[in-house]
Amino acid sequence: MPSRRFSSNIWARVRETTGLSFHTPPWHKLVMPWPSAQAPPSRTMWEAFRPLPLILLALVLLGPSVSFARRPALPTPGIPPGCGIPADLPQPDWPRTLGETSTVERLPPALGSITIALLPDTQYYSSCRYPHLKNQTDFLFHERGARNIQAAIALGDLTDHNLPAEWTFFKASLAPLGSGFPIFLTTGNHDLGPHGTANDRSSRFPQYFNQAWAKKTGELKEVLTPGAIDNAFYSVNTGHFKLGVLMLEWSPRQRTVDWANGVLAKYPDHRVMVATHAYLYNDGTRYDYATKSASQKWNPLEYNTAKGKLKADGNHDGELLWNALIRKHANVFLVVSGHVLANGTGFLESRGDAGNSVHQALANFQMLDEGGLGYLRLLEISPDGKTLHMKTYSPSLKLYSYANDQDFSFVVEPPLFQPASAASAPAAQPVTRVRPQTPVHTNLNHR
Questions:
Q1: Nearest of 207, 117, 115, 116 to residue 159 by alpha carbon
Q2: Rounded to the nearest 5°, which phi and psi values hold at 121?
Q3: pLDDT of 54
Q4: Is this prediction's pTM over 0.85?
Q5: Which are the contacts of 81, defined by CB distance < 8 A and separation ≥ 6?
């Protein structure tokens, strides 16, 4: 009947345009403007809208049986459902929390200190669109002068699934740094292969970050592949010494190691940090597949990037890289990496062939809620040229962690530089620490 069809259509349009859900009996059957199923020969404007007063009356009379709840919000387009830690990966104590946290910085950087920021495993920030990476870059930009932040280093796994939306989000999150802040990037296993599987070495990384992008601040000096920056060498003039930063791809291949040996030999006047995604394990030893095999989880040589035809590329885990590259060069003083889960921390001091100290540090926070809650590392080089202090801080939570594996100092031999005079670099005095009655942990929800 026309009246029924007409009133049903009006009702459907009201429901569609308002998003209201009316869980009621088929009340539209009460609307019967014409007694017969035969349509009238013509309808005036008034006749066409005759059902509307009855609809409004029905809403009033049947109010208790009508649900005005709006439809549930649809998922945000582009965010994969279930982003974050895979269901088969968490341990009983995940998401983890960092111990001994405080809003007060125990020992602010001394006058004349040099700071390098480390950004480990940002993959869940990119896949879940959490704001923590942007919070980090905001913090680095605004603290650059006060802390003398010379550069930031991202330790790979920039994305989780190697998807355009994740790369776009990651790049946009770097925007607060502007074009003049040096940030050095390289790849992790989740940045490679279809959907971040590392089944091969295909990556969208060079589509978003290339040699032209990296040259904007002037530190880029060498690349392995023209146009690409997954293997790159940067020179930073700190004002006290020349700092070299060697960025190496996931599971460096033999040709990468050969190139890196040449680069380190070419810049003997630089003291060098090496950054690669997977190098140190959380037990304080290097990844060593030859002797430890499966006892160290997630070794780079267990991934398909090191198997089948790709095995001929000569992939390196931590121990292989130590012997083939790092120990050979007297100018290397530090290796930093991420990748490893569990507690996500590790530290090792070794001696190179020339007797130089080589410190190796692991940091990863992806096991915390929301993929890390914004925690990063601040590596402070003291004015004495030899004492380095590693701090852990979250700009999102405005919390420092003073747990033993998150806040510590170590000494570099030989020193990175000689201070002009002892008087020009006064030692920092400890600041009274305000400790909360209970540890402060904050859970931010931005899903």
A1: 207
A2: 30, 80
A3: 62
A4: no
A5: 75
